[in-house]
Amino acid sequence: MSKSPQKKTWKGKGRGRGGYFKGRPFIFEKKKLDPSVFNESNSSAASTQIFYDRIPYKGWRYYFPEEAYDSNSDIVLHTQAAEYFFDKNKTSINLKELENKRFFNLDIKVLLDDSEFLSRWCTFKDDLVENAEKSISCMSLALHQTVTSILKSEDEAEFPSVKVRFINFESITPIKDIKAGLYGKLISVRGTVIRVSGNKLICVSMGFGCNTCYTTMSIPLKDGVYKMPSGCKADNCRSKSFTPLCSSNLSRTKSYQIMKVQESVADEQSEGGRVPRTIEVDLTDDLVDSCGPGDNVTIVGIVKIRNSEENRKSKSANLFTLYVDAVSVVNSKSGVNSGRQSLCSVEFSIKDYYAIQEIHAEEARFRLLVNSLCPTVYGHEMVKAGLLLALVGGSSANRRADAHVLVVGDPGLGKSHLLHACAQVSPRGVYVCGNTTSSSGLTVTLVKEAGGDFALEAGALVLANHGCCCIDEFDKMTNQHQALLEAMEQQRISVAKGGVVCSLPAHASILAAANPVGGHYNRSKTIAENLKMSAALLSRFDLIFILLDRPDEHLDSMLSEHVMTLHAGLKGKKKLMSVNSMCSSSCAEETDDPKQPLSNRLKLKYGEPVDLVPHSLLRKYIAYVRKYVPNPKLSVEAAKVLQDFYLELRKMQDTTPVTTRQLESMIRLTQARAKLELREEATTDDADDIVQLMRWSMRDVVTGDLDPKLSQNGRGMSQGSKAKRFIGALQKKANFENKDTFTVGEMKELIKSLNLQVQDFYQFISILNVQGFIIKRGSDRYKLLSV
């Protein structure tokens, strides 16, 4: 009896002639191997271990797994030079900290200052840039060898691998200059983190088992790129079929994270009309979770390439994107003054220190700084002073140190110019326009990545962390006002979307400019009615300035000449100054008198030769102040001045409460006034200036008198309040005189006696007539209908 042929199977139906046998399809079934059949004792690693035992460097397998040991190679010579350096500096190595963290920060300047080390490794500076990976591996191997020689224990071979992380790599490369020519080179990048992915694991070496002889081997995966072994390493085995062993001890992984960094462009390097450039940065091991969205970072890393997202799944991918494999990350939070962390992007040279010293030597330095903020806008010295104090901020010891300023006024008064100037001179300024800004673009966006994970992308307020966020056209973003409430008071932004619940820091000063609803400011309405803003949002602003376009012959003459001077240039400026001399000597004397009001002391004398501070230097002066004078204290006398003014406001209030927010605002501004003078203590003069500034911002737009109704309803009486007060007085007059009909003249006298500021009397009476409070009886007589 003949045996039936064994049936062979294969996944899927065959096609063509090879897929059929006598007209019937047959299926071949591929044999799957159980990973348990692979015996790791029968491993090529055993013979490799014998090879490693003959090498004098115990950690050779960690750093050069694919390199053969040669005592005359450059790798060994460079490692010996690095080993000499670490032997000489053994006292700076903390063994316990090194074993726990497994990295060692090494300042490149220390290596470059060591002449003996450079004599042993002559090409160190070039090798560090051109062949960074091998140079870092040599330094790490030398450090590992030094540590094992210090321990001198039986387990010295099992000491974990450590990595040297270079810091203070001086040549900062702009993100726009990172191109293909820098591939494989060590660079230093500075920018702002705008997105951080979740923590993942990346495989750095994978174990494989031969399907023929069951030998196991470990293959290093450079940059996490998966690859199969080229052939079996066992003797007399030429198999090229392998099974990956993910659960094997031969497979090793490490923590991995991707973040996106956006360029931080200073005012002298600004390029308008383009999207800010970004680059991805890979973080591994201890660098994971070292920074978050909105942080200013300085990254030292190696430029590498990966397949782009579009061609990542294609076998013939030929489109790549550049990224930076981070060697070290220095976060601004780890600085000495972590309370004011916006300073890592500002570097000070010797010339800068001398220039700051010259500014501090000026007698009227506050007036100089205020007038240097925005020279193109004439006047508005008090508004400029408030904006400058907000840029500096107060003490960040316990409560928020950032002040918020709102500038409201008629169009064409230079509000946008002031905000642009503030964004330029701030060490970390972000300028946005309200009519093109969304809530997520202002705060935080939750982005879903390709793998399904969520990442946080920073908005304008997070990017302006420890700086200022200038919002123009503030009245056009009514839907986004609620998103600012938490950021302005608690100075953080909470996120609860897609299962992600977290909060990001937003320690930023908000400087906003807004136009009234009707185009021009209506003096008979409050700020809330002119801007259609909630009382909760208005109460969070420390200072609210109202700019009105009032006809003034002297001011208009000076303003027109200022504009002509800007367009005439330097020669025209000298000519105009020589022709017109409108400023009297008495005005000059008043400006120099310290007893004069602050508004007079801040004004420049006409024709006065003043060397204004350029924006680049003013930016560094503000950064210097924030860095070296972080927490000024209030003197007892200054605190008494602020307390007396606060109690005065409490006594003058009607129905609108004056809360402690006004007192905290005055404390912040007083501390900022002392910081501008580089003083550690705020004096009585500082407090007096802030009281005058607060009085000026609280004054009534019509009478010029102090109006404490600021916090919620703004200043001035609303139309409804005036009507209610007038009808009440008219009712009393009707009861007293026992009549209900009044002439126009009587009602005018009543309004005058009540001191109601009504711009158009007949429009006011017409509104009361339409609303049904009074009814017209004849040409100039009205009857009161209310009971």
Automatic annotation (TrEMBL):
<keyword id="KW-0238">DNA-binding</keyword>
<protein>
    <recommendedName>
        <fullName>DNA helicase MCM8</fullName>
        <ecNumber>3.6.4.12</ecNumber>
    </recommendedName>
</protein>
<dbReference type="InterPro" id="IPR033762">
    <property type="entry name" value="MCM_OB"/>
</dbReference>
<keyword id="KW-0067">ATP-binding</keyword>
<dbReference type="InterPro" id="IPR058767">
    <property type="entry name" value="MCM8_N"/>
</dbReference>
<dbReference type="Pfam" id="PF25051">
    <property type="entry name" value="WHD_MCM8"/>
</dbReference>
<dbReference type="GO" id="GO:0097362">
    <property type="term" value="C:MCM8-MCM9 complex"/>
</dbReference>
<dbReference type="InterPro" id="IPR056875">
    <property type="entry name" value="MCM8/REC_WHD"/>
</dbReference>
<dbReference type="GO" id="GO:0005524">
    <property type="term" value="F:ATP binding"/>
</dbReference>
<dbReference type="InterPro" id="IPR001208">
    <property type="entry name" value="MCM_dom"/>
</dbReference>
<dbReference type="GO" id="GO:0000724">
    <property type="term" value="P:double-strand break repair via homologous recombination"/>
</dbReference>
<comment type="similarity">
    <text>Belongs to the MCM family.</text>
</comment>
<keyword id="KW-0539">Nucleus</keyword>
<dbReference type="Pfam" id="PF17855">
    <property type="entry name" value="MCM_lid"/>
</dbReference>
<dbReference type="GO" id="GO:0005634">
    <property type="term" value="C:nucleus"/>
</dbReference>
<dbReference type="InterPro" id="IPR003593">
    <property type="entry name" value="AAA+_ATPase"/>
</dbReference>
<dbReference type="GO" id="GO:0017116">
    <property type="term" value="F:single-stranded DNA helicase activity"/>
</dbReference>
<dbReference type="InterPro" id="IPR041562">
    <property type="entry name" value="MCM_lid"/>
</dbReference>
<keyword id="KW-0227">DNA damage</keyword>
<keyword id="KW-0378">Hydrolase</keyword>
<dbReference type="Pfam" id="PF00493">
    <property type="entry name" value="MCM"/>
</dbReference>
<feature type="domain" description="MCM C-terminal AAA(+) ATPase">
    <location>
        <begin position="365"/>
        <end position="563"/>
    </location>
</feature>
<dbReference type="Pfam" id="PF17207">
    <property type="entry name" value="MCM_OB"/>
</dbReference>
<dbReference type="InterPro" id="IPR027417">
    <property type="entry name" value="P-loop_NTPase"/>
</dbReference>
<dbReference type="GO" id="GO:0016787">
    <property type="term" value="F:hydrolase activity"/>
</dbReference>
<dbReference type="Pfam" id="PF26065">
    <property type="entry name" value="MCM8_N"/>
</dbReference>
<keyword id="KW-0547">Nucleotide-binding</keyword>
<dbReference type="GO" id="GO:0003697">
    <property type="term" value="F:single-stranded DNA binding"/>
</dbReference>
<dbReference type="InterPro" id="IPR031327">
    <property type="entry name" value="MCM"/>
</dbReference>
<keyword id="KW-0347">Helicase</keyword>
<keyword id="KW-0234">DNA repair</keyword>
<dbReference type="InterPro" id="IPR012340">
    <property type="entry name" value="NA-bd_OB-fold"/>
</dbReference>
